[in-house]
Amino acid sequence: MSDPLSPAARLLCDAMSAGFPGPGDPAALRAAASGPRPPGPEVASVRDADASGVPVRVYDPAPGATGRPLVVYFHGGGWVMCGLDTHDALCRRLAAASGAVLVSADYRLAPEHPWPAAPDDALTVLLWARAQAQALGCDPARVVVAGDSSGGNLAAVTALRAPELAAGQLLFYPPLDASMDSASVEAYAEGCFHTAAHMAWYWDTYGGDPAHPHVSPLRAPDLSGLPRTLIVLADCDVLRDEGLAYGRRLAAAGVDCTVQLHPGVFHGFLGLPLPAAASALAGAAAWVAALE
To answer: pLDDT per residue over 66-102, tens digit each?
Structure first.
């Protein structure tokens, strides 16, 4: 059977998988996730701040400008690992390419802080960012909630909780249904870095009722009234089908929703030196910049 990953993606996938721990040990996973990464581009102003008790990092590519979009970003890592530093380069690239001010949230992690700590922190940061929008040179009517992987889940949950506070949601390969009941879970359970066993452990460690829409947004009974949405997915990913299903449900509910499915790549590709990553980031930045 032919490899669903591109040759370049396969090389990266195998190298990353060889050094990545199995599920079950938060300390080992955090250590693996905190390794050295290539730096992101220069951004005119980068500073750490406190958002009503939640640490944040604010990226401003053009201090003094006004009326810009404001992106509130939630990092991935299975709700268990990663933070401001692991996603610094990605946040720099998105801010620089979009021209938006970006606020990256250092929300509390499981298992020390299970659900609903992370979504509560996410909402706190959104409220803080909205209140600071004009001081940051941004238009409070152009706020985007965004995130990758588990951070994409937090962005989707935050939009569900406060749809009136966001003009858009940008979701990179988000987990959206704790039941993990889709064909892509079986198809890509192993061999594409992010395994079904890891995802199941992340869900269990995160906690919360799997049927609750603020855990599993795909199970929300009503998606009407949500903001404009861009969902970016990897084709070779256990989470692919729930992202596609969420896009279909959003469209059926009348939400302006675009889904971009990138073939030949795996979960987490956005931060890797792959053509699909450059294309996805450029498309997301243009979408943010055009948001009215």
So the answer is: 999 999 999 999 999 999 999 999 999 999 999 999 9
**Cα torsion angle, 39, 43, 44, 50, sign:** negative
For residues 4 and 240, what is the distance between their CA atoms, to the nearest angstrom? 14
Tokens of 95: 């801010």
Catalytic residues: 149, 237, 267
Tell me how far apart the alpha carbons of residues 202 and 207 are, in angstroms, rounded to a whole number: 9
Tens digit of each residue's pLDDT (9 = 90 or more) over 4-62: 999 999 999 999 999 899 999 999 999 999 988 899 999 999 999 999 999 999 999 99
Q: How far apart are CA 173 and CA 231, in angstroms?
A: 7
CB 264 within 8 A of CB 236: yes
Asked if 114 contacts 190 with a C-beta cutoff of 8 angstroms, the reply is no
Residue 101: exposed, middle, or buried by beta-carbon count in 10 A (0-12, 13-18, 19+)?
buried
What is the residue type of 44? Answer: A
Cα separations in angstroms, 128 against 180, 222, 269? 33, 27, 30
